[in-house]
Design goal:
226 residues, alpha+beta, eleven-stranded mixed sheet, 18% helix
């Protein structure tokens, strides 16, 4: 576990692909428990240690996850997320290159719990939810491109299904159109940057995740032209 920001109220960690944020039916130890153990040991706290889950990212995704160290911080961060006052930026390595250098994608997403998969359509249907995101191409390689993605809504598997819908599946994402898996079972999607006004101190918090330790990620990042 890599801590990238910590104060008296919040802790932000860089989640490795494969880790789960909260416990599920697999029984694997979730990241929230790992963070709780870290806090208990670091501050030599007896008894239970508070660690609140503010938000989650999919298991095969890497990058920034925020946890609350106090109940006050948890309730206030929940409010910031509900009001969409937390800016989250994702980076994605995708097969093919989008036709447009930047664009807003709008789809209607239907999730089927039976196979834990979402489906995107250009037209609304019964039970579908509107999904919207912006992307821009940061770098283009021979086979893959690096995109920056800003979410306007928070739907299940939203980035994965919307990019797949325009013919640009995320590298390693077999569920949404990638032909090959990544060796470590990850998908090449990172929760790259999180910024918000701290709910207690009122200071601007702006945290960027370190680049994944991967040759393709680094090669594409080196090609970024601002």
């Amino acid at each position: 576990m890599q801590v990238v920001y910590e104060d008296n109220h919040l802790i932000i960690v860089n989640k490795a692909p494969g880790e789960i944020v909260q416990g599920d039916k697999t029984g694997d130890k979730p990241l929230v428990d790992i963070v709780r153990d870290y806090l208990k040991e670091k501050y030599a706290k007896p008894g239970n240690v508070f660690c609140g889950v503010v938000h989650r990212i999919d298991r095969p995704v890497c990058g920034l996850v925020v946890f609350a160290k106090t109940s006050k911080a948890l309730s206030r961060m929940n409010e910031l997320f509900q009001k969409r006052e937390v800016k989250k930026v994702y980076w994605a390595v995708v097969k093919n290159a989008p036709i447009k250098q930047s664009d807003t994608l709008t789809h209607y997403i239907t999730t089927v719990e039976r196979n834990n998969k979402s489906y995107a359509s250009l037209q609304p249907s019964e039970g579908s939810l509107k999904a919207e995101l912006d992307y821009r191409v940061l770098a283009r390689g021979d086979n893959y491109s690096l995109l920056e993605v800003n979410l306007h809504t928070g739907r299940k598997h939203q980035i994965r299904v919307q990019l797949s819908a325009i013919g640009c599946p995320i590298k390693g994402d077999l569920k949404y159109g990638s032909r090959r898996s990544n060796p470590d079972g990850s998908i090449s999607l990172q929760s790259h940057r999180i910024s918000f006004v701290h709910p207690v101190s009122k200071l601007l918090i702006d945290v960027v995740a370190p680049l994944p330790d991967d040759r393709l990620w680094k090669a594409l990042a080196d090609e970024i032209k601002e």
